[in-house]
Amino acid sequence: MELLPRSPGEFGSARYWDRFFRQRGQRPFEWYGTFPELCPVLHKYVRPRDKVLVVGCGNSELSEQMYDMGMCEDIVNIDISDAVIRQMQERSGSKRPKMSYLLMDMLQMDFPDSYFQVVLDKGTLDAILTDEEDATLAKVDKMFAEISRVLQVGGRYLCVSLAQAHVLKKAVEYFSQEGWVVRVHQVASSGDKQQFVLPVFVYVMTKFRKIPGSASQILEICPEEQDKPMRVESTEQLVAAVKDRQHYALLCSQLSKTPCGEQVSLDLCDKESGRPRYTLHVVDSPSVKPSRDNRFAIFIIPQGRETEWLFGTEEGRRQLATSAGFGRLVTVALHREQHYEGMAGIQAELSGKVMELAPPGLPARQQVPFLSVGGDIGVRTVQHCDTSPLSGEYVVEDVKGDGTCYFRRLIFLRNRNVVQSEARLLASVPLPGQKKRRKDKKKTSPAEPPTAIDKSYLCCEHHKAMVAGLCLLGGPNPLPGTPLAMLVVGLGGGSLPLFIHDYFSQAHVAVVEIDPSMLEVATCWFGFSQGDRMQVHISDGLDYVAKLAAEGTVLQSIPAQYDAIMFDVDSKDVTVGMSCPPPAFVEKPFLQKVKTILKPEGVFVLNLVCRDIQLKDSVLATLRQVFPLLYTRRIEGEVNEILFCQPSPEGRRDSTELGARARALEQDLRKPGLPWDSSYTLADMLQAVKIL
């Protein structure tokens, strides 16, 4: 039996609907939105004494259920189908004496002006507004004008809709321009995703007298999980907010039916500010054999650790899910702008929402475990935040790592999942002769995080590899006491030039940084300082190198050429598949200038972060054209690759010689008065170096 129209235009035809209801018979037809789902919203806007008009009533049970539940009795139902009106008159008749069914076209109603307090439309607007042709829009304008005419001031037009973008946009624009208040409610789902996937919305348009010359409009949205409406500024924002909820519903439906091949990512936003509060990743592990207790779990990533490989990369999260032994794991990252009330508070806040992401076959009322590292949500303290004209918004924050270690990090918020600079913090120790304060046994408080910077520790693996690359310098052994002229392009928090300055006592380090804000950050928050052997130049690295190459001289008291040049500079252009360095830094003419200011036995060290394989191959090919000897060191678990470039092929060394030089250099660097972190060695950092 064919019930669908041959064309969308037939939805407005009385002939089509007569045929539809005759073929369907007595069975009620509900487009979407059952009475139990709609009841919480209708209760807010329909009062028992209201006179209610239902347009395009069909044979829906909605009016009957409203009547029987005592919500309202004075209900007038109209429809253009004679067949359905006669059917409903017979069905409702004497049972509901105060309710009537009339054959009437809502585009030309017989009711007097301001006759109703409520006009209710369940799917009728969706059925008429099937396209944006002029004839269709004219019909909708006529419908809206008639609804406006029969409604009293203060009356409500309640439209139950699937909120297709063009339908919502038309309704909102029409009534907001008339001076009405527009509010969109998302209807709470019954949970039967097999019946209907898309969420149902109710537009509530409240009639006010139009004030001549007033351009103000009130637009609001009420998500299903909250009663308090959220104000939006424009029709476009309202349509976008609804579209987000529709996409989320489709995603949940898909995840409830089939395992996800690729990891799914989504943000849950704060109700008040609209800013992201949680970032979720849904990870399925096909290798895990499902049982009742290992189908689904939630993993809360401790604050400040979302950038770690295990939590911040697809491969890391996949490994985490497999090792945790769950078929589906949802990882939850916490945002620095938000406040959280501990693990219990997060669990209470997320429990209902994450269950919408449950895998297929999860038993009803199944207890879902919340997991974390160490059972807490970690510690994150934002020490400083500001905006730089060059780098954008940034924050300096202290976070707790594994165990009792604390770290200070610089984060550029345009790429909030990447740590720009990092330093380990030292526990405060009493000065010589200073007594420790006795603790009050009666008072217990959590240990305060340290604040002093541990300058001996390189947090970033690529910085360790860059320092190890100094083993490639010419001569029998580059002792720390040997005079070295060093150029570092890119300051960040300053940990790399600081380490070189402190451990290579004869090194003169020139640092080039384009952003003056970073010098202030490094000085105030990362323990960086300038002196006789450390000078920072606020300049574009491209211009600085070009000027040196042209002049053939460097700073006073420093040789005309550098022993080592290091590039650790990020790209501000996120559209390029290479985030470090900017593409101009690896173009052949500029690399030739770098070679010009590098000593023949020197080394050029480049931190390369490139996800575009073709672009990376092109960069390597260009480097080989300029530098005959090229070594590479991949950083495990990261995209970073450290390239060591030398002007002469005669400096080629095998891994055995490199290891011996690294051990000798490190032995010299472990001098009295300067602590050396034992968790890594220079030889280890050079172990995986390959010659390209």
TrEMBL record:
Keyword Transcription regulation tagged = no
- Show the Pfam families listed in the entry: Methyltransf_31 (PF13847), Spermine_synth (PF01564)
Instruction: Output compositional bias ranges, type Basic residues.
Output: 434-444
Q: Which InterPro entries match?
A: Lys/N-term_MeTrsfase_sf, Methyltranfer_dom, SAM-dependent_MTases_sf
**Gene Ontology CC:** cytoplasm
Please report the stretch or stretches of sequence annotated as the Methyltransferase domain. 50-172
What Gene Ontology molecular-function terms does this entry list?
methyltransferase activity
Q: Which UniProt keywords apply?
A: Methyltransferase, Multifunctional enzyme, Transferase
Q: Which GO terms describe its biological process?
A: methylation
Q: Where is this region: Disordered?
A: 430-450
The reply to whether Cytoplasm figures as a keyword in the UniProt entry is no
The record's NCBIfam families line, in alphabetical order, gives: MFS_SpdSyn (NF037959)
The family note in this entry says: Belongs to the methyltransferase superfamily.
Entry protein name? eEF1A lysine and N-terminal methyltransferase
Q: Which organism is it from?
A: Jacana jacana
Lineage here is: Eukaryota, Metazoa, Chordata, Craniata, Vertebrata
